[in-house]
Amino acid sequence: MKRIIFLIILFVIIYSESIAQFCIGVQGGASASFISFKVKDYLNGIEDEEFLANHTGSPIIAPIGGFMVNVYYDKRFSFQSEILFENKEPGLSGHQYFIHFPEMIRYNIPVKPKSDKSFFFETGPYFSYCFSKENPYDGNSVGNYTFPPNQTYYISKTDIGIGAGIGYKQQWGIGQIDFCLKFEHSVFGQITTLEQMNLENQEVEQVARLRHKILSLTVSYSLPVKTIKKLMHPVKHTEKN
């Protein structure tokens, strides 16, 4: 995570002076999350049987929030990087809390020529890291499959996927306000494995791939870096003028 934050800061330092406009801000809203499971059994390393288990229950509705960075290449294209905290539905008891890094390319469509109001489309990959210590699998059921109780599970912490969204933005005060509706879907997902020995001393391994589906509605408010500098050092800018 530290490396990712370092790369974002480095990106800011390199491009803040050369790009037309560079903005930073805060973001908040709500998300609805669903999951799907695909579980496979392996007996002594050979695939034995496959189970399909789909979570069809009600989605979990949870708040989502964090920070965002938006770099405008020109009036049409911009790049938005976000650092968010969110709760994703594991499909079982318990929760999974993630730090979430969407990296979106935006295409902006002004409402009118030279207008400060515009619609936008965005798409790009995301990377999520789970920092929750809960184990939602032990002894619980998803669809037609029940995870064995009292076993040791090895749960991967990462979720990688792709997202796309639509939104509206406009100038508001000294900054800019954005409204965005976005859908994200796991490409690789999380992997959970369970290893155990049966009565005949045969090694049984179960591998479950967990894919997340997230629908979120967020509001962002950002300020250009030049405006922030003026607010932080008003005396220096007054002397120059």
Can you describe this structure?
The radius of gyration is 22 Å and the shape is elongated. It has 241 residues and is mostly beta strands. It has helices at 2-15, 225-232, 234-240, and strands at residues 21-43, 46-54, 60-72, 77-88, 96-110, 117-130, 141-142, 145-146, 153-155, 158-172, 175-186, 190-197, 203-224. A hairpin with a 5-residue loop joins strand 12 (190-197) and strand 13 (203-224). It has one domain (20-40, 50-192, 210-240): Porin (Beta Barrel).
Q: How is this fold's topology laid out?
A:
Layout: H1 2-15, E1 21-43, E2 46-54, E3 60-72, E4 77-88, E5 96-110, E6 117-130, E7 141-142, E8 145-146, E9 153-155, E10 158-172, E11 175-186, E12 190-197, E13 203-224, H2 225-232, H3 234-240
Antiparallel strand pairs: 1-2, 1-3, 1-13, 3-4, 4-5, 5-6, 6-10, 7-8, 9-12, 10-11, 11-13, 12-13
Total E-strand runs: 13
Class by alpha and beta content: mainly beta
Shape: elongated
**Which second-level CATH architecture applies?**
Beta Barrel
What is the count of structural domains? 1
The N- and C-terminal alpha carbons lie at a distance of 41 Å
Beta-strand content estimate: over 45%
| Estimated helix fraction | 10-25%
Overall radius of gyration: 22 Å
Low-confidence segments, given as residue ranges, are none
Main beta sheet strand tally, sense and closure: 8 strands, antiparallel, barrel
What average pLDDT do the residues reach?
77
User: What is the CATH fold-level name?
Assistant: Porin
CATH uppermost class: Mainly Beta
The DSSP helix count reads 3
Record the strand order, biggest sheet.
1-3-4-5-6-10-11-13
Secondary-structure element order, as H and E? HEEEEEEEEEEEEEHH
